[in-house]
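DUF4294 domain-containing protein
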Amino acid sequence: MKRLIFILFLSTAFVISKAQERDTSKEFMGYVEDGDTIIFKNIKEVVVFPQREFKNKRQYRRYSRYVQKVKKVYPVAVEARELLEEYEPQYYALESNKERRRMMKQVEKELLDKHKEELKKWSISDGRILLKLINRETERTPYSLIQDFRGDVSALFWQGIARLFKNNLKDGYEPDDEDKMLEEIVTLIELGYL
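Tokens:
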């Protein structure tokens, strides 16, 4: 009985000591109003989305698969944005078209070497999601990116290939309308919830 009381006492003391730890969020100056001190603090942003209602298990499975596809494709779209930020100034700093073409071929080769095997395993819907996410990350359509860096003929060629697979490189990203669910999933991924 003494042991049980001792263990309860220690566990209670441990819980109380944990509850008394100082909040590590950054505090700012406050002000006093009617005898109350109001302190300003930075708190973590909380994003609230409407709760998804699924009519049946099939809808839930489709949503879960969609989340998995976005999680698989999103890092590639982020990498595309980072590469664009890195190479675009260098590309426009080059004076001749020959040097620009050489640079683009080198970047394409590096990307293919890095992602070729992974991309072979992707489905058409994965590619569609990637096109939307590239548009979201770079704020430019894939068609305009190809047109800027590879030219009009190349952009028309790849648009034709995309149309064969029922995709469109010119489609924009509409986070408030057509792509609302995609925007919610990406936001949750960025905040670390998914």
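The mean pLDDT is 82.
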